[in-house]
Write a structure and sequence with these properties.
Order of helices and strands: EHEHEHHEHEHEEH
CATH class: Alpha Beta
CATH topology: Rossmann fold
Distance between the termini: 13 Å
Helix content: 25-40%
Number of helices: 7
Strand order of the largest sheet: 3-2-1-4-5-6-7
Number of domains: 1
Low-confidence stretches: none
Number of strands: 7
Mean pLDDT: 96
Strand content: 15-25%
Bound molecules: glycinamide ribonucleotide
């Protein structure tokens, strides 16, 4: 059994899809949800699915042991970021080399980096009159939204799109592809 920790701090819609995808799996278990925001939607989703939640705080994450001890206690093999907006510290990357992936709601390397998340990403895409946007799933390294790309899927940006309508189109791509890619990566 491979044990995944999902790091998420938002509403948790991707976490929900990943949990559903592996619900009956005998090979992959969602063993932990790691969150830095008390009250985030993802915490309720974890609780509804009987998945333990580790609430983390900044000081220990960035200047302490990055919670590597707890991850080891939960026997975590692989880390999936799903709307987790803190940079991943070097110590954690070294503890999980090529075992941390992220999803970003745009076609990196454009529209990534610090502060680029949620509606801001989609608004920037629209403001620049891009004809297409999409999702990027990539390994995590020590820079924001950087590491080697695993998958990009594109969608059109329509003439009358708002950041909200574009966000919905991209969210459905995320939900379709992220759980599937995690399965392919872990089960190959
Ligand atoms: C997703 O759109 C994900 O791509 C984005 O946060 C959202 C989380 O939504 N991540 C980033 O922007 C990372 N730079 P969710 O809480 O509904 O899963």
């Amino acid at each position: 059994m491979q044990r995944i920790a999902i790091f998420a701090s938002g509403s948790g819609s991707n976490a929900q899809k990943i949990i559903e995808h592996f619900h009956a799996s005998k090979k992959v278990a969602i063993a932990l949800v790691v969150c830095n925001k008390p009250g985030a939607g993802v915490i309720t989703i974890a609780e509804q699915n009987n998945i333990p939640v580790l609430l983390i705080e900044k000081e220990r994450f960035f200047r302490g042991d990055s919670y590597i001890k707890e991850l080891a206690e939960h026997k975590i093999d692989f880390i999936v970021l799903a709307g987790f907006l803190w940079k991943i510290p070097a110590a954690l990357i070294q503890a999980y080399p090529n075992h941390i992936i992220n999803i970003h709601p745009a076609l990196l390397p454009k529209y990534g980096g610090k502060g680029m998340y949620g509606q801001q990403v989609h608004q920037a895409v629209i403001d620049n009159h891009e004809k297409e946007s999409g999702i990027t799933i990539h390994y995590v390294d020590e820079q924001y939204d950087h590491g080697k790309t695993l998958l990009q899927v594109k969608c059109p940006v329509l003439k009358d799109d708002t950041s909200t309508t574009l966000a919905l189109r991209i969210q459905s791509l995320e939900h379709e592809h992220y759980p599937k890619l995690i399965g392919e990566l872990l089960l190959k």
